[in-house]
């Protein structure tokens, strides 16, 4: 245990914790808008494109982080253009990027004379090799990302939920779509060192999927997703550090699996909540002229009787065994 | 009675629209007067949705001109004066959102970036939800509502921007009678405030008494323009307008009759 606590005094561990915290905040913030636009896999596509960027960095001996940012942003612009021109649907455009990016990346890394090991640090993350410069870079990009997504939340919400409406409302929909894609590209490169390019999308999507099991408003979803993102990123890092005394446990996959475990544990709650909401949503008011009294009814309905009390006009109907029973004087009516 | 003696909210002169090179609308002349409730009717594929998409700027015109509130389309910037209800079956998206949040997004026409909602914004949002009769449900998720209630949410979203002109693209399609009545009530309230309404509809139902003027589209042209028709007239004999004859070749498949172009 003291070995574990000693880890916190190590500079590389402190840097890794900071990077994980920032990534956990940023990725779900932009991921919420991707899920809203039903483009959950965009992050994955951009991650694959960024592999080419990393490879170019390795080939030219420049910082792979910067070349990855440039190539991922170019890929984001390209995918928006393909989507908007409408010749290919978003799904196919994403697939084209997936394969092109990954193939070119592996090919160029080979040309650079670098082995798979060098690329692996970017594909699956290497939190422990992060420098102080990397942390500042991550910090800067996270601030830009949070200011843009939270500051422009009403605009991005309108554009993502209904582009036609947003255009008639006078918003420059194309610019906002491009902004979302570019921010996603930036996030991919921010998260590259933490969870790796191939797992980036998980940190953008899984916290959102977890959060929307419990939330019913957009604001709660995005805030919840950011909290879950931070918990998963920090928790996954600490878990992998604690386990690394016994076996080789990489932080990236641990973070993603922890996020998935959180989803798996909230999912049944979400199913139950949705079922309960549907059960308790008010019955429509319809003019009825018949008056049907229930048969002999030994049970007495009340606030604590256990049967769902569903609002119906000015009273409540108690639901049980497919019947809707409403109190009427001394007896119950069938509604 | 028009509130302002202003320019007509919508004015289309000899408008035509082509989609992918195929002429869809030809020779459209349409002026919507201030304070008018106009119903745009016609069969599927007659071009009524295309016309409102051209008026709202979602489709480019290939010929002729549009002016909104007296300003030619290219110079028009006052988009907060136009409220639009697109043709959608649901107000829900990939992420949960409450009724209040969806309606609040309609306020976007009057908000500057990076500014919080003002008290005036909140009042307008609350009022819009009230007009469509969903105040009791403003905290519910939109996906929990029925299809008809979701259409009311979309109308409230357009109303939240306090537009002078409201354009609705088939809000009544597949909506039960009770919700159609609620929609009609909301539009009646809105009309009483002096706003102009353009409604694309297949059938009018409870809206019928509100309609000032009906325009019937047929094969991309205006086939009738006049007082609201009852059901039999609309589906019976049409009285074509004495319009100019054009020489645009009409595109049709071998089995189509080419009599639509007159």
What do these coordinates show?
The complex is a heterodimer of chains A (335) and B (262). Chain A contains 13 helices and five strands. Chain A has 335 residues and is of the alpha+beta class. Among the domains of chain A are: 11-201, ABC transporter involved in vitamin B12 uptake, BtuC, CATH 1.10.3470; 292-334, no CATH class. Chain A has a five-stranded antiparallel β-sheet with strand order 1-5-4-3-2, with no helix packed on it. In chain A, α2 packs across α11. The mean pLDDT of chain A is 87. Chain B is an alpha/beta fold. Chain B has one domain: Rossmann fold. In chain B, a hairpin with a 2-residue loop joins β1 and β2. In chain B, α4 runs parallel beside α5. Chain B starts with 9 loop residues before the first strand and ends in a 27-residue tail after the last helix. Mean pLDDT of chain B is 85; it is low at 258-262.
What does this entry show, briefly?
The complex is a heterodimer of chains A (335) and B (262). Chain A has 335 residues and is an alpha+beta fold.
Radius of gyration of chain A: 26 Å
CATH architecture of chain B: 3-Layer(aba) Sandwich
CATH fold description of chain B: Rossmann fold
- How many structural domains are formed by the residues of chain B? 1
User: What are the segments of chain A in which pLDDT stays under 50 over at least 5 consecutive residues?
Assistant: none
Q: Termini separation of chain A (Å)? A: 64 Å
Low-confidence stretches of chain B: 258-262
CATH superfamily of one domain in chain A: ABC transporter involved in vitamin B12 uptake, BtuC
Number of discrete helical segments of chain A? 13
CATH topology of one domain in chain A: ABC transporter involved in vitamin B12 uptake, BtuC
**In terms of quaternary structure, what is this?**
heterodimer
What's the helix and strand layout?
The complex is a heterodimer of chains A (335) and B (262).
Chain A: H1 2-6, H2 11-36, H3 42-60, H4 64-85, H5 90-111, H6 116-123, H7 132-151, H8 153-161, H9 163-168, H10 173-191, H11 200-214, H12 218-243, H13 251-280, E1 292-293, E2 309-312, E3 315-320, E4 323-328, E5 331-334
Antiparallel strand pairs in A: 1-5, 2-3, 3-4, 4-5
Chain B: E1 10-19, E2 22-32, E3 37-42, H1 48-55, E4 63-68, E5 71-72, E6 82-85, H2 99-104, H3 119-131, H4 147-160, E7 165-169, H5 177-192, E8 196-200, E9 213-218, E10 221-226, H6 231-235
Parallel strand pairs in B: 3-8, 3-9, 6-7, 7-8
Antiparallel strand pairs in B: 1-2, 1-4, 4-5, 9-10
């Amino acid at each position: 245990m003291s070995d574990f606590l000693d880890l916190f005094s190590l500079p590389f561990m402190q840097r890794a914790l900071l990077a994980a915290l920032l990534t956990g905040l940023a990725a779900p913030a932009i991921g919420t808008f991707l899920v809203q636009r039903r483009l959950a896999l965009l992050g994955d596509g951009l991650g694959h494109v960024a592999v080419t960027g990393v490879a170019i960095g390795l080939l030219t001996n420049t910082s792979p982080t910067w070349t990855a940012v440039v190539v991922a942003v170019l890929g984001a612009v390209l995918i928006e253009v393909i989507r908007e021109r409408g010749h290919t649907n978003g799904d196919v455009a994403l697939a084209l990027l997936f394969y092109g990016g990954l193939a070119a990346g592996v090919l160029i890394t080979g040309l650079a004379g670098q082995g798979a090991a060098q690329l692996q640090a970017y594909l699956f993350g290497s939190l422990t090799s992060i420098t102080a410069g990397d942390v500042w870079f991550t910090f800067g990009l996270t601030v830009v990302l949070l200011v843009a997504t939270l500051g422009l939340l009403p605009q991005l919400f309108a554009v993502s939920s209904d582009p036609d409406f947003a255009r008639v409302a006078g918003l420059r929909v194309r610019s906002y779509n491009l902004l979302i894609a570019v921010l996603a590209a930036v996030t991919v490169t921010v998260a590259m060192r933490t969870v790796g390019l191939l797992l980036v999308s998980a940190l953008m999507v899984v916290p959102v999927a977890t959060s929307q099991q419990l939330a019913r408003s957009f604001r709660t979803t995005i805030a919840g997703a950011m909290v879950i993102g931070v918990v998963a990123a920090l928790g996954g890092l600490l878990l992998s550090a604690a386990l690394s005394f016994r076996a080789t446990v990489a932080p990236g996959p641990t973070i993603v699996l922890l996020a998935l475990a959180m989803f798996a544990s909230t999912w049944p709650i979400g199913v139950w909540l949705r079922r309960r909401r549907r059960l308790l949503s008010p019955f429509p008011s319809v003019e009825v002229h018949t008056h049907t009294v229930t048969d002999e009814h030994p049970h007495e309905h009340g606030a604590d009787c256990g049967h769902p009390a569903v609002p119906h006009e000015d009273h409540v109907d108690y639901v049980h065994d497919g019947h809707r029973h409403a109190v009427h004087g001394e007896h119950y009516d069938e509604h | 009675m028009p509130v302002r003696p202003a320019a007509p909210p919508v004015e289309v002169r000899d408008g035509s629209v082509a989609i992918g090179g195929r002429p869809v609308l030809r020779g459209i002349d349409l002026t919507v007067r201030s304070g008018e409730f106009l119903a745009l009717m016609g069969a599927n594929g007659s071009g009524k949705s295309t016309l409102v998409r051209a008026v709202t700027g979602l489709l480019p015109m290939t010929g002729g001109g549009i002016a909104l509130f007296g300003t030619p389309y290219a110079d028009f910037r006052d988009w907060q004066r136009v409220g639009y209800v697109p043709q959608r079956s649901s107000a829900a998206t990939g992420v949960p959102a409450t009724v209040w949040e969806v309606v609040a997004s309609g306020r976007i026409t009057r908000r500057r970036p990076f500014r919080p909602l003002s008290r005036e914004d909140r009042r307008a949002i609350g009022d819009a939800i009230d007009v469509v009769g969903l105040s009791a449900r403003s905290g519910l998720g939109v996906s929990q509502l029925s299809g008809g209630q979701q259409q009311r949410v979309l109308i409230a979203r357009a109303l939240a921007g306090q537009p002078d002109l409201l354009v609705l693209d088939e809000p009544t399609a597949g909506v039960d009678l009770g919700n159609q009545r609620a929609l009609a009530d909301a539009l009646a309230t809105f009309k009483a405030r002096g706003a102009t309404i353009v409604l694309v509809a297949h059938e009018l139902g409870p809206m019928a008494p509100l309609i000032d003027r009906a325009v019937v589209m047929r094969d991309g042209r205006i086939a009738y323009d006049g007082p609201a028709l009852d059901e039999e007239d609309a589906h019976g004999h049409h009285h074509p307008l004495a319009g100019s004859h054009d020489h645009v070749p009409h595109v049709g498949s071998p089995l189509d009759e080419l009599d639509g172009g007159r």
